[in-house]
Structures are given as C-alpha cells and as structure tokens.
Amino acid sequence: MNSEANRLSTSPDDASTRAGFVAVAGLPNVGKSTLLNALVGAPLAAVSARAQTTVRTTRGVVTRDRSQSILLDLPGLLVPADLLQASIRREAERGLSDADVVLLVVDASRSADGFGEVVERLPSAARRLPLVVALNKADLAGEQELLRWEAAVCELLPGGVTTRTSAIAPYGLSDLLENVEAALPASPFLYPEDEIAAEPLRHFMAELVREAVFELFREEVPHATWARTEDFREGGSRERTYIQVTLWVERGSQKAILLGSKGAAIRELGVRSRKKIEAFLDRPVYLDLWVKVLPGWRRKRQALERFGFSLPPEGADDRGNRGSGREG
Q1: I want to staple 53 with a disulfide (CB 3.0 to 4.6 A). Which of 48, 99, 303, 318 is the partner?
Q2: Spatial separation of the C-alpha atoms in residues 166 and 181, rounded to whole Å
Q3: How far, in Å, CA of 68 to CA of 63, rounded?
Q4: Rounded to whole angstroms, how far apart are CA atoms 259 and 271?
C-alpha cells in the first residue's frame, strides 16, 4: 500500500464523502479478480481459469462522485493443506479484519446449496460488517437458481444485500458499486481521485508475468512458480523501461519446462508478458526474465518470508486445520 503521505483527501467537503476498504472475498475461482478488474476498469489482478491464482492481496481504487471504494482482492477462503496455503488463508483473514465492508462474491452458476460452506469459511467478525453479496456469473444461471441464491443469503446472512452481476458480460456492476458505496463510512477520500491502484508498480509487473505463466503452462508449474520484480528502471523519452523479473520454481525439471527447448518457452512467455506490461504502462519496455530454483519454497518458512508472505506462528501453520485445499 502507498505511504500515509500519499493517502490524501482530495474532496473539497469531507463531511459529505464516503470512503473505506472493501474486502472482496469468497471461495477460490468464483471470479473475484475478474470482478475487481471490471470494477476498476484495468487489469490489476492476475486472472486464470485455475483456482488459487490469487495468493496476495491486490488493492484497486474506484472513485465515483462522493464515494471512494478501496477494493481488496483477497485470496480465496480455502482450507489450508500446507504452509503456503496457511499463509494464503492468513492473508485473506487479515484483509477481512482491515475492511469496512465485505463484498462476498459467489459463483451463481453453481448450486446455492453450497452457500452454507461459504458462510462457514467467513470469519465471524467479518459477518458483523456491512455485507454486499455479488451473485457473479449470473448470466450463466437460471432465474430459479438465482432466486434460491437470494433466499439463501436472506437466511444465512440477514441484512446482506444481493446484486446480480457478471464481470464478463458485463452487467450489474454499477448497481453493485452503488450498494457498496451505500455501506461505506463517512470519510474523506484516502487516495487521489485519479488513482486506480494502491500497490507499487513492481507488484503489478510480477503479477502480469505470473498471469502469463498460468496461461501458457500446465500441470504443477504455475502454482510452483513465484514471480518477483528485481529491478524497475524508467528510461528517458526515447528509451524503453527496463524491468527484471525473476521466476522462482521448486525443481530443476520445472525450470526446464519454463525455459523450453532451446529457450522457446521462455521467449514466448517473455513476449506475452511484455505485451501485457506495455499495455498496462502504456510505454515500451525491455523485459528481462530469469528463472531460478529454490527447492520446496512453498513448504519452507524462510523462503516464504523472503517472498513477503505473512505466516502463522511457528507450530500453528498447517497442522491444526488440514484439509484437501481443493475446491470443486
């Protein structure tokens, strides 16, 4: 997040403005990141058809009229099966504890019978916050199923406000924002009105490369890969911006897959990633990709701390609440 010095009120009349943090929460793979990107109007969060693409919080800012919503795209509320997943769950819970409003996203194309599990995974403190429920992918659901979802929300989360939405179609986005804004506390704006992101550029460069990894590779490689921006140097008016991103994998075989025969795969990854970054920055870049091996990094506390993950205390990581970590 930006420093406090950058979180300035830009409203001429603070008493009439609303602003706050909105936790975008839900199970993995229900479209939270796609919805965040649609609401902000920019590809801030990495998206993929695979579950657990989001492992770190991305903050997007939406300012409309007298309201400013800082959207926290949280990792999915999974049952941790290892140390990395325990860290992911902790990241989601921390985001919920910082929120003023919870925007709970569900996949309305699935059966509403599973809503009880969603509510169970939501921390009890978060259930006491103002709740807006996005019935996402509503364009893929029938009317009767949508009515069942709305009834389930009324039963299990009394006071929760439902909105039928589709991030892809798109529709319902303005109504969704209106419901979120109505729940925000009175506050001066926390960021300049023209700002749409509350993360450093280095964060987004790494996320765009990681998104490309999910698009191009299969099996265990995407989830075993972590991207970190090592260098970011803006060039002059006639020079390209230099960006160095290191991809960390767990095994030499995964490195070989990322590199490909005679470097073909890493070149394809570089081209795709560079196009995404240039579209994001609206300027030409020189992207320098490195691949390194850090054996078993997803299971090692020191490695995860090195990558900036927030870990549970020693002895309380993944032992007290083991599960499959998988979502249907």
Answers
A1: 48
A2: 19
A3: 4
A4: 13
**Dist. CA 204–CA 181, nearest whole Å:** 26
Residue 285 and residue 279: Cα distance in Å, rounded?
A: 10
Q: What is the DSSP letter of 166?
A: B
- Report the range of poorest mean pLDDT among 1-15, 67-81, 282-296: 1-15
Residue with tokens 């991030």: 167
Q: Is the dihedral of CA 46, 209, 197, 303 positive or negative?
A: positive
Phi, psi of 161 (to 5 degrees): -105, 125
pLDDT in tens, 252-289: 999 999 999 999 999 999 999 999 999 999 999 999 99
Helix axes 264-281, 201-216, angle to 10 degrees: 140
Structural contact between residues 47 and 53, judged by C-beta atoms closer than 8 angstroms: yes
| End-to-end CA gap in the chain | 32
**The CATH number fitting domain 201-306, selected from 3.20.20.60, 3.60.21.10, 3.30.300.20, 3.10.20.740:** 3.30.300.20
Nearest to 123 by CA among 169, 79, 157, 77: 77
CATH number of 4-183: 3.40.50.300
